[in-house]
Amino acid sequence: MKALFRSLPTLCLGAALAACSATPADPVSFKENDLYGLKDPSGKVIVAPSIELQPVYHEGMAAVRINNKWGYMDRKGQLLIPTLYKRPGPFSDGLAGVCLTYSECGYIDTRGRTVVPFEYDWVEGFDDAKDGLAVVAKGNLFGMINRKGEQVIPLRFSSRPITEKGYVLLNDSASKKSGLMNTSGKVVLPFEYDGFAYNTWGGRLINDNLLSVAKEGKWGFIDLNGKVVLPYIYDRPGFFRDGKAIVQRDGKHYRIDRKGNETPLEYEPLKLP
After folding, report:
1. If we measure between CA atoms, which residue out of 85, 3, 96, 104 comes closest to residue 58?
2. What is the C-alpha separation between 79 and 4, in angstroms, rounded?
3. pTM (predicted TM-score)
4. Which of 118, 158, 196, 236 meets the CB 3.0–4.6 Å disulfide criterion with 106?
5. What is the annotated signal peptide range for this record (predicted)?
C-alpha cells in the first residue's frame, strides 16, 4: 500500500527565521592588475580577475565585460549568458535590454533568449515607475513598449518620453507640438501645445494638479482635463506649490494664487536650472 504524502509549508521559527527568509547574497568584487574578480560571501574566489569593469548585480545577474564584449554572470560566477553584446542594461523583472551592435538592440531573458527582437537603436529597462513600460528609440524617434514587445506609445516622438503618475509627456515629430498620453496609449491632452514645463527642482511635471504649458510664446496653467485655469499671459513657466506660484509678466515678477490674484515681488527669484 503506497503512503500518500502532502507537501507541507516550511516553518521558520526562532533563530531559523532569518536564514529561512534571506535571499542569496551577491558576490563581492575585488580588483587585481586592473581587472575584477569575484568572491563569494565567505571570501572564496569564485571568478579570477578577468572582468574589465566592476560588475553590479541586479536580480541575481551581473553584466560583465570581458575582451570588450558583454555577457551576464549569476551569483555563482557562472557566465550564463555569453559575451556577445554591447550596451548591456540591468535585469528588471527578468528582462534586460542589450545591443548586438549600436543599432541592433532588443531584450533577452535570464537564459539569454530573445524576447523582444533586436530592431531598435536604443532600449531602456522596464520600469514600475513607467507602469511596466520601457523607452525605445529608432531613427531618432522614441516610443514605449510593454514586455511583449508591443508598442504602447507609438514610435513617432522626437524626444525621450517623460512619465509621471501614469501620464507620458511627448513631443510629436510631425506637428512639433507637445501633448500627454497615458501609459495605456490613450491621448489625454491633444498635441496642440508649444511646450510643457518640468519642475527640475521638485522633479515634477504635475504641480498641485496643474500643468504649466505654452501657446504662441506665452505660458499659462491647465488642469489634467485640459481646462485653462490661468490664461496664457506669462513670460515664463511657473510651478504651483501649496496653492501659490511665482510667475513673470511684462518683465515683472509676481506671486499668484490659483485664481490669478497677483502680489508683486520686490526681489528677483532664483532662476530655474
Report:
1. 96
2. 41
3. 0.84
4. 118
5. 1-18
